[in-house]
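Quick one, C-alpha cells below. Sequence please?
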C-alpha cells in the first residue's frame, strides 16, 4: 500500500467515525431525556410523612400511588391536596364524564403528556367520546362532526391553552351551555391536568413497563 492509499483510508476511517458520533451521542441524549427523574421510592426509603400520604392516597383511590403522584409524593401535602382536587374534577365535575375526559385529552395533547393520554384515552372512549374525535385530537387537528357541547368544550379548552385567554363568543356559548359552575369546572379540569402534565413532563414520569408512547411528538 502506497502513502496515497494509506492517507485515503485514514481519511475515510475518520469520516466514518465522525458520521457515527451524532448517532452515538443522539442515542445517549435520547436515553437521558427518557430517564425518569423521580422514579418510585422504595417502601423502606419513604419518610413517615410520605408513608402516611401513600396510605391515605391508596385508601381514597383504591390503588397505590402511581402516575403523577409518584413525583408528587416528594411533597406529601401537595400530593394529597392535588388528589383532593382531582377527586372532584375527575369524578364529580358538572360537565359529565364524556366532556370531562375530552378536555383531559385536549390538555394532554397540548403538553404531549404520554402518561396522561395513555391513562385517559380508554376512559374517554368508554364514556362515549367517539374514537375519530379522540384520533383528531391526538393528531393536533380540530375534530369534525363534534356534538354542540363538544364543540363548545373544545373551543373553550383550546383557546385558554393556546391563546391564554377566551374570546367573548366562546365564553358566551360556554356560559349558555354549562352555566357558571360548568365554566369553572371546565377551566378547573384544564388547570388541574395542566398541573399534572407540568409535573410529569418536568420529572419525566415514565410510561408503564412495556407500554409505548401513544402520542406523536410535535417538532421541538
Amino acid at each position: 500500500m502506497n502513502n496515497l492509499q494509506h492517507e485515503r483510508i485514514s481519511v475515510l476511517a475518520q469520516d466514518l467515525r465522525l458520521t457515527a458520533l451524532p448517532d452515538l451521542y443522539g442515542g445517549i441524549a435520547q436515553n437521558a431525556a427518557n430517564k425518569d427523574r423521580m422514579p418510585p421510592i422504595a417502601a423502606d426509603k419513604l419518610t413517615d410523612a410520605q408513608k402516611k400520604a401513600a396510605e391515605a392516597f391508596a385508601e381514597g383511590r383504591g390503588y397505590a400511588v402511581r402516575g403523577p403522584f409518584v413525583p408528587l409524593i416528594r411533597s406529601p401535602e401537595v400530593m394529597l391536596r392535588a388528589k383532593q382536587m382531582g377527586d372532584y374534577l375527575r369524578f364529580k365535575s358538572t360537565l359529565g364524564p364524556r366532556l370531562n375526559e375530552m378536555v383531559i385529552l385536549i390538555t394532554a395533547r397540548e403538553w404531549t403528556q404520554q402518561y396522561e393520554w395513555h391513562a385517559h384515552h380508554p376512559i374517554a372512549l368508554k364514556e362515549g367520546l367517539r374514537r375519530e374525535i379522540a384520533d383528531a385530537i391526538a393528531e393536533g387537528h380540530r375534530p369534525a362532526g363534534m356534538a354542540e357541547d363538544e364543540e363548545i368544550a373544545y373551543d373553550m379548552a383550546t383557546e385558554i391553552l393556546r391563546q391564554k385567554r377566551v374570546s367573548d363568543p366562546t365564553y358566551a356559548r360556554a356560559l349558555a351551555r354549562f352555566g357558571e359552575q360548568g365554566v369553572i369546572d371546565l377551566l378547573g379540569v384544564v388547570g388541574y391536568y395542566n398541573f399534572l402534565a407540568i409535573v410529569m413532563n418536568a420529572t419525566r414520569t415514565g410510561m408503564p413497563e412495556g407500554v409505548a408512547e401513544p402520542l406523536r411528538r410535535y417538532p421541538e
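The chain has nine helices and no strands. Residues 168-203 form the longest helix (36 residues).
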